[in-house]
Amino acid sequence: MALLSILALLLAGCLASPGRAADARIGPDALKPMLQSDSLVFNGFTRSKDGRLFSPFQRQTKGEGIELGEWRDGKPVAFPDAAWNAWKQGDDPAKAFVAVNAIRIGPEGDLWVVDKGARGMGEAPLPGGAKLVQIDLATNAVRRVYPLQAATTDRSFIDDFRFNGRNVYLTDAGQPGLLVLDLDTGGLRRVLDGHRSTIAQRPLTGQGRVLRDDKGKLLFIHADQLEVSPDGKTFYYQACTGPLYSIETRFLDDAAVSDAERARHVRLFAPTVATGGTAIDAAGTIYASDTDGLRILKIAPDGTTSTLIEDPRLVWVDAMWIDEQGGLWIPAAQMNRTPTMNGGETSAVKFPTTIYRLQIDAQPLRN
């Protein structure tokens, strides 16, 4: 009873978070459905400068469906090819997608993909399975694979990533911590390993409900969302349930800095709530979803938080993307309704799943 009371208080605090009033200029008609699927669940989106559209997909049945797809004529097609999407038990996990979790177009225009390399939620990554894959969009072929095994453990769940020059920062949502990858050397380091800012302090929630994995255990998603400031000097990150922290990137980039010293420079940036995904614009405004309140928050560079839009269709908005025309692409992923977050129960996803677009007149930031 005591635990339930505590969880109820936490949820009440989240739903009463600051910035509740939505932007009066934005009505429900401004949220435009752009892409839909009658059978597939996606948890992200990215768009190339020439208008090509991509999403990672979450298989609801092992061995069926695709992990990464390009939207062509309104339907997703396995990308870069069928072979990369056809991994099965016994295949080499270093040469195919085991479980794609995040994608984005990189600063040079290639498509980059994080594969957590584990067959299911809470399972250990397979040897060679955790990787960052770079795909040349001119040839639709894999350009390079960066193995992540050297900085992962059997608890790791490599979640998302951002660029900062020739460094890539990645979050580990299973073994709480951050990874720093040098793209030139392939060198990989763990930083802020086990630091309080990388650890989820409460169970994951969605639509006001505490979530459990497919084995019935409470879900704790550690270091997850992340962004880099427009000038590349500040790194923002949080566990899936918030709050949002910041640290100067120089303390991440310098391998000579000890983790104890690094921890001294972590700052609380904004009191975010349970979040599915984020995006950042060229002015440094962060857009973060609220998985309980079904809304998108705007977090100004000074940490001030307001509501951009609130809409019942925005169920578990995951990784968002800002296009060159100032549109925010919003995948309503409904992840909280899938068996992996719904205690193993039959999927409650309401099809079609939808990716929306909202004109926000912001310039994109590519990192």
From TrEMBL:
PANTHER family linked to this entry: PROTEIN YELLOW-LIKE PROTEIN, PROTEIN YELLOW-RELATED
Protein name: L-dopachrome tautomerase-related protein
Cross-referenced Pfam families: MRJP
Classification via InterPro entries: 6-blade_b-propeller_TolB-like (IPR011042), MRJP/yellow-related (IPR017996)
Localization terms from the record: Secreted
Gene3D superfamilies for this protein: TolB, C-terminal domain
Primary subcellular site in the record, as a coarse category: secreted
Keyword vocabulary terms for this entry: Secreted, Signal
Annotated signal sequence range: 1-21
